[in-house]
Amino acid sequence: MQYGQGFWVVENGMRLKDRSLAYPSLRGFEYGDGDFGHFLLKPFAFDYVKPNDGSGQAWRITISGDPNPLLHLNSFDFDGASVPQLKIVRMMVRDKLDPRWQVASLGHDLGYCVHEYVMGFTRSDWDELLSEIAEAYGESAYYRGKYRLAVNVAGWACYKKTPEELAIYRSLVKIERVPL
Questions:
Q1: For the chain, what is the domain count?
Q2: pTM for the full model?
């Protein structure tokens, strides 16, 4: 997938034509389990067309962010594409916030936190979104394959969410259909 052909970052309701400007504002933090994550410091939106979707519409996904982020209240948090903390697995892939992966892992982590919320996406669809957005940001097939493998190692465990967790994350996202 190429940037501008099935995937765009959106600001002020307009699709950005230049992907070099299409990155989220982030602040790093440490989770209680010792892993590191990032908060969105302002809302971040993107349009995405699922493969083989001939509807003439895109899914617009707007994710909450705030300059004063509070975990699970006003800003989405993410840890980077559900890549397990196992050192051997993390060594296989690029840094989770390499520019080729920032937006891809944000979208993927969002999907793992909201599941099929509104869209009917499956876990496999969110895994495909990870690879497609990374490709739109210039990542090679080699590293997209490695990331996909790393996510498949433990993605099933990361995908599990309680109804309460799903409700928290779903409150931090708006999903709608927009014309292409």
A1: 1
A2: 0.89
